[in-house]
Amino acid sequence: MRYGSRDTLHGVDLDIPRGEVLALLGPNGAGKTTTIEILEGFRRRSGGEVSVLGCDPDRPDGDWRGRIGIVMQSWRDHPRWRVGELIEHFARYHADPRDPAEVLRLVGLEEHARQSSAQLSGGQRRRLDVALGILGRPELLFLDEPTTGFDPVARREFHQLVERLSQEEGMTVLLTTHDLAEAERLADRIAILIRGRLAACGTTAELAESIRAQAEVRWLEDGVPRSEPTADPSGFVWSLHNRLGGPIPGLEVHRPTLEDTYLRMIHQEDTQ
Ligand SMILES: Nc1ncnc2c1ncn2[C@@H]1O[C@H](COP(=O)(O)OP(=O)(O)OP(=O)(O)O)[C@@H](O)[C@H]1O
């Protein structure tokens, strides 16, 4: 993708198998929304090949749009419509929609069905976006920063919903988020986009391995905090136990989280 003379995306080679949940991560301006909008058919790419559910998004066939679900970062609709009416209205556009009452329940908006969408809070508004995205039982769901503004309970419920849709219905999900714990919880694989280039793609463990991030063992010795990075924490703890001749005070094993790995990758790219 090129805006003017500037390459915004270059060589983003990526296959997402059916049924996978893939999280696309990257700093602000890395090109995540641009990538998603190209795949959704909302932005015409400058070059390269794209196939989504077997179709080029720039030349979709008749029922293609009905097979994908979209939750964009911002969405314009009819602010005076009631939530329930809006969902019932959009359900009519789909060949085999979910029951609108079920969708309201799934996203936790049952009590707001008679409220106009303009009166919803930020997090409730986002739930409505998610409701509209899953209404048509899409095979592939695009979620662009879906939980922005969600409180912790709503976030947990949303995670359970995505897990259900993916595990029970085999829905493929492409998610962008700045919440690394969310990506770690939901995604089978994580792709990291930095300045328009795909810097890495894999499971949390594979990404940590790719930058040789090690676990760290922490303990107290004679009341003094000690720590040691190690590729074999079990072996290290075993030898420490033998050396100390018994239980290890204050023992902690810290494995690299996705956040640790991500921040190191961003730092490495910045210093290159
Ligand atoms: N219509 C446009 N014309 C010119 N440049 C654009 C346009 N849309 C996006 N860009 C630029 O392309 C780059 C990628 O933007 P994009 O919105 O895809 O990033 P992002 O990774 O989704 O960021 P964020 O995390 O902030 O949502 C940015 O530098 C942005 O300024």
TrEMBL record:
Keywords: Antibiotic resistance, ATP-binding, Nucleotide-binding, Transport. It holds the Pfam family ABC_tran. Gene3D superfamilies: P-loop containing nucleotide triphosphate hydrolases (3.40.50.300). Its main location: membrane. It comes from the Bacteria. Residues 1-220 form the ABC transporter domain. InterPro entries: AAA+_ATPase, ABC_transporter-like_ATP-bd, ABC_transporter-like_CS, ABC_transporter_ATP-binding, P-loop_NTPase. It is found in: Cell membrane. One of its GO terms (cellular component) is plasma membrane. GO terms for biological process: response to antibiotic. SUPFAM superfamilies: P-loop containing nucleoside triphosphate hydrolases. GO terms for molecular function: ATP binding; ATP hydrolysis activity. It is a peripheral membrane protein. This is ABC transporter ATP-binding protein. It comes from Streptomyces kaniharaensis.
